[in-house]
Every structure is written in structure tokens, then in C-alpha cells.
Amino acid sequence: MQTGQPLVGALLFPVGFCLLYLLGFDLLTGVFTLVPLALIDKRPGVRPRTVLRNWSLVFVGNFAGALVVALMIAVIVTFSFTEAPDAVGRQLGVIGESRTVGYAEHGAAGMLTLFIRGVLCNWMVSTGVVAAMISTSVSGKVIAMWMPILVFFYMGFEHSVVNMFLFPSGLMLGGDFSVGDYLLWNEIPTVVGNLVGGLTFVGLTMYATHGRTAPARDGVVEAPAKTTVG
């Protein structure tokens, strides 16, 4: 964002995602896509409540981490809240307004647009998660992740975890919108869109074309190698 050039920002943005994946941490958009497949594949011990528990824990963890970072950024751009926000801080507030009340101004059409942007976002993000599995080298995984994440950011799609940082920081920095605006006109529809996009267009599609058609060994379909969920 500080570059003033959207493409440059998009080129830099995947750094955090790649580090998260390589370190084996969980991202909400990733578990939306992959965890339900264990239930569909009838893996031992996996039940609907197992999936919901995983989603809940990852949501809380991601949200808590995003709030901590949002607070630290707010401190930095206001000199510990002793001055008005600098240019970066003011921009965070403006983005928060445009992507909450901006959608609300269009009513149902705005809500549908927000939802579709959430769908398209996790189609890209989860494609990066799955694409990273095709390589065994760090460089190969990074390249495979970088491309779809760059596309999602440059296109301005809605990512629920990014927004867990973006909008709370905007509120702390004087953005002209409320917590209710943030939840109703961004976070909740974005979470639903991310779930639908990742699970439908990546998880179930890949499972149908790869998991269910994997060659059998001694009459048993091989389970995919265990991997972390980005």
C-alpha cells in the first residue's frame, strides 16, 4: 500500500502468506478448503463437529493475531496515539469506509458484489495452497503460491483474514464506519464467500478429479501425503 503502485504492492503481498505456509501455520481460508475433505473422505475420527472445531479455533487464532498487529500498526502511525494518523493511517481509514459503507450504499447489489469478491478471493488463495503441494522444494512452493496470491491482491478481492487486520486498524485510526458496518458489510459475507469459493472451486473440484480417481494399490486408494494448511 505504501508503494502507491498496486502492482508493486501485489508483488510484495504474498511474502506473509508464503512464510505462514512454510512454517506450518493455519489460515482460515486454507482450512475452509481442505479440512472438510477429510470428512467427505471418511477419515477415521473426523466428524462434522471436528471440522467446526477446527474452523472455530483457526478463526479465533487468526482474528486475535490480526487484532494484535492492527493495534501495533495503529501505535506506529500515531506515535502511540499522541498524534493524528500519518498518510498510511489515514489511508487505512479510507479503505475501511469504502469497503463497508461503500458496499452498504448499493444495498443487495453491494452485498452480492462483496460475496462474489470473497468467492473469487479464496478460489485464488486456496489454489495457491494446493499448488504448493506439487513441489518438494521451498523455491517451488513459493513460486506456486506467489502467482495466485498476487492475482487476488491485485484484483481487490475480499480475504477474511486480511480484513481482520484492515478494518479494526481503520476503526482505531478514525475511519468513518462502525463495528456493525464492518461485521455486516464485510467480515461475515466475506467469510461465507471465502468458504464457498475455496471449498467449491478448489477443494471439492480437486477431490473429484484427483482424490477419487487416484490409482489403487492392493485395492486401497492411497491417501494424500499429510501437509500443512496455509
TrEMBL record:
Xref: Pfam families: Form_Nir_trans
Subcellular location per the Swiss-Prot or TrEMBL entry: Membrane
Membrane-spanning parts: 12-40, 52-81, 114-134, 146-168, 188-208
Keyword Cytoplasm among record annotations: no
InterPro entries the UniProt entry points to: Aquaporin-like, For/NO2_transpt
Membrane topology: Multi-pass membrane protein
Superkingdom: Bacteria
Family of this protein: Belongs to the FNT transporter (TC 1.A.16) family.
Protein name as annotated: Formate/nitrite transporter family protein
Species in which this protein is naturally found: Actinophytocola glycyrrhizae
